[in-house]
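Protein details
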Amino acid sequence: MASRKQIATPEITDADATPVDHLTGDEIWLHEYDMLKNETIERIKQRDGFINLNIVAIAAIVGLALSSAVNPIVILAIPWVSLCFGWAYLANDEKVSALGLYTRYHLTMVFGSEYLAWERSEKRSTNLKNIHKGVQLFADLIQFVMPGIASPIVFLVLTDNSSVGFILLAALEIVLSLGLCILFVLLSNFIERWNISMNDWTGIEDDPLSK
Protein backbone atom coordinates (compact mmCIF):
# COMPACT_ATOMS: atom_id res chain seq x y z
CA MET A 1 0.00 0.00 0.00
CA ALA A 2 1.35 3.39 -0.96
CA SER A 3 2.20 5.57 1.94
CA ARG A 4 0.11 8.67 2.44
CA LYS A 5 1.87 11.75 1.21
CA GLN A 6 2.81 14.08 4.02
CA ILE A 7 1.68 17.65 3.58
CA ALA A 8 4.23 20.09 4.85
CA THR A 9 2.83 22.84 7.04
CA PRO A 10 4.55 26.21 6.74
CA GLU A 11 6.25 27.55 9.80
CA ILE A 12 4.96 30.81 11.20
CA THR A 13 7.81 33.23 11.63
CA ASP A 14 7.89 36.60 13.34
CA ALA A 15 7.47 38.23 9.95
CA ASP A 16 4.19 36.36 9.38
CA ALA A 17 2.72 37.13 12.79
CA THR A 18 0.28 39.95 13.28
CA PRO A 19 1.05 42.74 15.80
CA VAL A 20 -1.53 41.34 18.22
CA ASP A 21 0.28 37.99 18.42
CA HIS A 22 3.12 39.57 20.40
CA LEU A 23 0.90 41.40 22.90
CA THR A 24 0.13 40.38 26.45
CA GLY A 25 -3.38 40.38 27.90
CA ASP A 26 -3.24 43.95 29.16
CA GLU A 27 -1.63 45.15 25.95
CA ILE A 28 -4.45 43.57 23.93
CA TRP A 29 -7.01 45.49 25.98
CA LEU A 30 -5.04 48.70 25.44
CA HIS A 31 -4.88 47.96 21.73
CA GLU A 32 -8.65 47.46 21.67
CA TYR A 33 -9.10 50.72 23.57
CA ASP A 34 -7.00 52.61 21.02
CA MET A 35 -8.91 51.04 18.13
CA LEU A 36 -12.27 51.92 19.69
CA LYS A 37 -11.22 55.52 20.34
CA ASN A 38 -10.04 55.89 16.74
CA GLU A 39 -13.32 54.46 15.45
CA THR A 40 -15.24 56.82 17.74
CA ILE A 41 -13.37 59.83 16.37
CA GLU A 42 -13.97 58.77 12.77
CA ARG A 43 -17.67 58.16 13.36
CA ILE A 44 -18.05 61.55 15.07
CA LYS A 45 -16.47 63.20 12.03
CA GLN A 46 -18.82 61.32 9.71
CA ARG A 47 -21.85 62.10 11.88
CA ASP A 48 -21.13 65.82 12.00
CA GLY A 49 -20.33 65.82 8.30
CA PHE A 50 -23.88 64.71 7.50
CA ILE A 51 -25.19 67.86 9.19
CA ASN A 52 -23.17 70.06 6.86
CA LEU A 53 -24.11 68.00 3.81
CA ASN A 54 -27.79 68.22 4.69
CA ILE A 55 -27.65 72.01 5.09
CA VAL A 56 -25.76 72.50 1.82
CA ALA A 57 -28.09 70.19 -0.10
CA ILE A 58 -31.25 71.88 1.24
CA ALA A 59 -29.85 75.33 0.46
CA ALA A 60 -29.03 74.24 -3.10
CA ILE A 61 -32.51 72.78 -3.65
CA VAL A 62 -34.22 75.88 -2.25
CA GLY A 63 -32.06 78.02 -4.50
CA LEU A 64 -33.16 76.00 -7.52
CA ALA A 65 -36.79 76.15 -6.44
CA LEU A 66 -36.67 79.93 -6.16
CA SER A 67 -35.10 80.26 -9.59
CA SER A 68 -37.59 81.18 -12.29
CA ALA A 69 -35.89 78.84 -14.74
CA VAL A 70 -36.51 75.71 -12.65
CA ASN A 71 -39.82 74.08 -11.82
CA PRO A 72 -40.59 74.45 -8.09
CA ILE A 73 -41.33 70.73 -7.97
CA VAL A 74 -37.67 70.24 -7.06
CA ILE A 75 -38.59 71.25 -3.53
CA LEU A 76 -40.10 67.79 -3.12
CA ALA A 77 -36.56 66.40 -3.24
CA ILE A 78 -35.77 67.93 0.16
CA PRO A 79 -37.47 65.21 2.25
CA TRP A 80 -35.53 62.45 0.49
CA VAL A 81 -32.25 64.27 1.05
CA SER A 82 -33.03 64.85 4.72
CA LEU A 83 -34.17 61.25 5.18
CA CYS A 84 -30.94 59.84 3.74
CA PHE A 85 -28.63 62.16 5.65
CA GLY A 86 -30.74 61.88 8.80
CA TRP A 87 -30.62 58.09 8.75
CA ALA A 88 -26.85 58.11 8.19
CA TYR A 89 -26.44 60.66 11.01
CA LEU A 90 -28.60 58.57 13.35
CA ALA A 91 -26.72 55.35 12.57
CA ASN A 92 -23.35 56.93 13.31
CA ASP A 93 -24.64 58.67 16.43
CA GLU A 94 -25.97 55.37 17.80
CA LYS A 95 -22.60 53.70 17.16
CA VAL A 96 -20.76 56.54 18.89
CA SER A 97 -22.99 56.12 21.95
CA ALA A 98 -22.56 52.33 21.95
CA LEU A 99 -18.77 52.66 21.72
CA GLY A 100 -18.82 55.12 24.60
CA LEU A 101 -20.87 52.79 26.76
CA TYR A 102 -18.60 49.83 26.03
CA THR A 103 -15.49 51.85 26.86
CA ARG A 104 -16.99 53.40 29.95
CA TYR A 105 -18.52 50.33 31.58
CA HIS A 106 -16.63 47.34 30.21
CA LEU A 107 -13.05 48.42 29.60
CA THR A 108 -12.89 50.44 32.81
CA MET A 109 -13.78 47.28 34.74
CA VAL A 110 -11.05 45.38 32.90
CA PHE A 111 -8.33 47.93 33.71
CA GLY A 112 -9.52 48.71 37.22
CA SER A 113 -10.82 51.75 39.02
CA GLU A 114 -7.46 53.56 39.00
CA TYR A 115 -7.31 53.72 35.20
CA LEU A 116 -9.38 55.53 32.55
CA ALA A 117 -10.71 57.98 35.13
CA TRP A 118 -11.87 60.40 32.44
CA GLU A 119 -13.96 57.68 30.79
CA ARG A 120 -15.59 56.85 34.14
CA SER A 121 -16.20 60.43 35.23
CA GLU A 122 -19.53 62.16 34.91
CA LYS A 123 -18.88 64.95 32.37
CA ARG A 124 -22.03 66.80 33.38
CA SER A 125 -24.43 66.83 36.27
CA THR A 126 -27.69 64.95 35.83
CA ASN A 127 -29.74 68.11 35.24
CA LEU A 128 -27.31 69.53 32.70
CA LYS A 129 -27.09 66.15 31.00
CA ASN A 130 -30.86 65.97 30.58
CA ILE A 131 -30.98 69.55 29.27
CA HIS A 132 -28.16 68.80 26.82
CA LYS A 133 -29.90 65.68 25.52
CA GLY A 134 -33.17 67.57 25.12
CA VAL A 135 -31.53 70.44 23.24
CA GLN A 136 -29.58 68.01 21.05
CA LEU A 137 -32.74 66.07 20.20
CA PHE A 138 -34.56 69.30 19.33
CA ALA A 139 -31.67 70.40 17.10
CA ASP A 140 -31.61 67.02 15.32
CA LEU A 141 -35.34 67.19 14.64
CA ILE A 142 -35.01 70.74 13.28
CA GLN A 143 -32.18 69.72 10.97
CA PHE A 144 -33.42 66.41 9.60
CA VAL A 145 -37.17 66.11 10.27
CA MET A 146 -38.64 69.60 9.91
CA PRO A 147 -37.43 70.10 6.29
CA GLY A 148 -39.04 66.80 5.28
CA ILE A 149 -42.40 67.87 6.74
CA ALA A 150 -42.35 71.55 5.80
CA SER A 151 -41.25 71.30 2.17
CA PRO A 152 -44.19 69.16 0.91
CA ILE A 153 -46.64 71.44 2.72
CA VAL A 154 -45.01 74.55 1.26
CA PHE A 155 -45.11 73.02 -2.22
CA LEU A 156 -48.83 72.21 -2.01
CA VAL A 157 -49.71 75.60 -0.55
CA LEU A 158 -47.68 77.77 -2.89
CA THR A 159 -48.32 75.94 -6.16
CA ASP A 160 -51.52 75.38 -8.10
CA ASN A 161 -50.63 71.79 -8.87
CA SER A 162 -52.97 69.74 -6.72
CA SER A 163 -53.01 66.48 -8.66
CA VAL A 164 -53.55 63.25 -6.77
CA GLY A 165 -50.02 62.08 -7.56
CA PHE A 166 -48.37 65.10 -5.96
CA ILE A 167 -50.67 64.92 -2.96
CA LEU A 168 -49.83 61.25 -2.40
CA LEU A 169 -46.12 61.95 -2.84
CA ALA A 170 -46.27 64.79 -0.32
CA ALA A 171 -48.20 62.59 2.13
CA LEU A 172 -45.63 59.81 1.77
CA GLU A 173 -42.77 62.21 2.45
CA ILE A 174 -44.48 63.56 5.55
CA VAL A 175 -45.15 60.04 6.88
CA LEU A 176 -41.53 58.98 6.31
CA SER A 177 -40.27 62.13 8.00
CA LEU A 178 -42.50 61.44 11.01
CA GLY A 179 -41.09 57.92 11.10
CA LEU A 180 -37.58 59.35 11.23
CA CYS A 181 -38.73 61.64 14.03
CA ILE A 182 -39.93 58.64 16.02
CA LEU A 183 -36.57 56.91 15.52
CA PHE A 184 -34.72 59.96 16.82
CA VAL A 185 -36.92 60.08 19.92
CA LEU A 186 -36.77 56.34 20.61
CA LEU A 187 -32.99 56.11 20.28
CA SER A 188 -32.60 59.16 22.47
CA ASN A 189 -34.62 57.44 25.21
CA PHE A 190 -32.69 54.20 24.70
CA ILE A 191 -29.37 55.92 25.21
CA GLU A 192 -30.68 57.79 28.25
CA ARG A 193 -31.96 54.56 29.81
CA TRP A 194 -28.48 53.01 29.77
CA ASN A 195 -26.73 56.15 30.98
CA ILE A 196 -26.30 54.83 34.52
CA SER A 197 -23.92 56.30 37.07
CA MET A 198 -20.58 54.69 37.85
CA ASN A 199 -21.47 55.10 41.53
CA ASP A 200 -23.99 52.28 41.06
CA TRP A 201 -21.51 50.10 39.18
CA THR A 202 -20.79 46.97 41.21
CA GLY A 203 -19.24 44.48 38.80
CA ILE A 204 -18.96 43.01 35.36
CA GLU A 205 -22.02 40.84 35.88
CA ASP A 206 -24.11 44.03 35.85
CA ASP A 207 -22.72 45.14 32.51
CA PRO A 208 -25.66 46.86 30.73
CA LEU A 209 -24.17 45.84 27.40
CA SER A 210 -24.76 42.18 28.22
CA LYS A 211 -28.51 42.59 28.77
